[in-house]
Amino acid sequence: MKKLCCWMLLGLLVACGAAKKEEKLADKDKEKKEEKVPVEVAQVGTGFIEATLSASANLETEAQVAVYSRTSNLLKTLLVEEGDHVAKGDVLARLDDETQKIAREKAQATFEKNEKEYLRQKSLFEQKMISQQVFNDTLF
Question: Can you tell me the distance from the alpha carbon of 13 to that of 7, in angstroms, rounded to the nearest whole number?
Fold first, then answer.
């Protein structure tokens, strides 16, 4: 009976030792899993929060429109930017119109000269100083 008690006591000690060893291994695993995070301590206060998000993507248009001008002049001012909403008839850009202004002034001067010549020829025709043929030539 003494032997049996000794064996039981020995078995109990071995079992307790194994359980203690498993408990130590579990504690080491737990410490490995819990990694320490560095922290910074600061006073609480009022301030601005700034967050920036940067991303890249491929964009596709819903619709594509070709824009043509009536003349082929240099671009003077661009009134809209890419992505702006526009409606039919909106002015998108201003072109350099110096060439058209010069042509208009030249045409106006030619018109005024021809008008004066017509009035002079008409006056001469009414006074019977020129023939019908000369007056008709003035008209065309």
Answer: 10
